[in-house]
Specification:
The protein is mainly α. Helices cover 79% and strands 0% of the residues. The chain folds into two domains: 45 residues, Arc Repressor Mutant, subunit A (Orthogonal Bundle), CATH 1.10.10; 152 residues, Tetracycline Repressor, domain 2, CATH 1.10.357.10.
């Protein structure tokens, strides 16, 4: 990526995160980045275009992390746990890293939905591959992998907000250890449900 464009994105991310998008002007971004306003407008027409670039960058960060977890050479149960732990932690890091920007972003329903749909398709396909591998190895038993993958995705997504807020953190406990235990609870619930459905 062009270094000047990246410098503008990095500056805007810092300012949006600190002051919020509404309270940050293109002039602020220009002055803080050391780039002229003319240069700024070569790359971005307005703050919304810069925000879209920031979101694409953060989405790529999440996608790279979860795709990496899904490719780990692990047994199905361990891979499922590694995937969920990686996913939850990278989402929390992205939200916490962006401060006030996150609040502005979540107010924009259309933008949120657009991002969610893109990420959703990728996540469901990764979960499907993990669960299918488990079925192929006779560790998991599901008749309808497509439906189970969709359901699992929404169960995991449903704990995003409480996890980000630290609701599931156990005092004096390793955060990842706590998350792994909760992830196994989800998985064993799915497995037991699968057994019931397959009877």
């Amino acid at each position: 990526m062009n270094k000047t464009r990246q410098a503008i994105i990095n500056t805007a991310k810092e300012l949006f995160g600190k002051n919020g998008m509404k309270n940050t002007t293109m002039h602020d971004i220009s002055a803080t980045s050391g780039k002229s306003r003319r240069t700024l407008y070569i790359y971005f027409k307005n703050k919304n275009e810069i925000l879209d670039a920031i979101i694409e960058e953060e989405l790529a960060c999440v996608i790279n992390a979860i795709e990496g977890a899904a490719k780990l050479e692990l047994e199905p149960v361990d891979k499922f746990v590694a995937y969920v732990v990686t996913r939850m932690n990278v989402v929390r890091e992205v939200v916490q890293r962006n401060g006030s920007l996150g609040a502005d972003f979540f107010k924009d329903v259309i933008r949120v939905e657009r991002c969610r749909r893109k990420l959703e398709r990728i996540e469901i396909n990764l979960l499907k591959a993990i669960l299918q591998e488990g079925c192929d190895k006779k560790v998991f038993f599901f008749n309808n992998i497509d439906q189970v993958s969709i359901f699992t995705h929404f169960v995991i997504r449903g704990i995003d907000v409480p996890y980000i807020r630290g609701v599931f953190d156990e005092p004096g406990s390793d955060k990842n250890g706590s998350l792994k235990r909760k992830t196994l609870t989800i998985l064993y619930g799915l497995l037991n449900s699968g057994k019931e459905v397959n009877k």
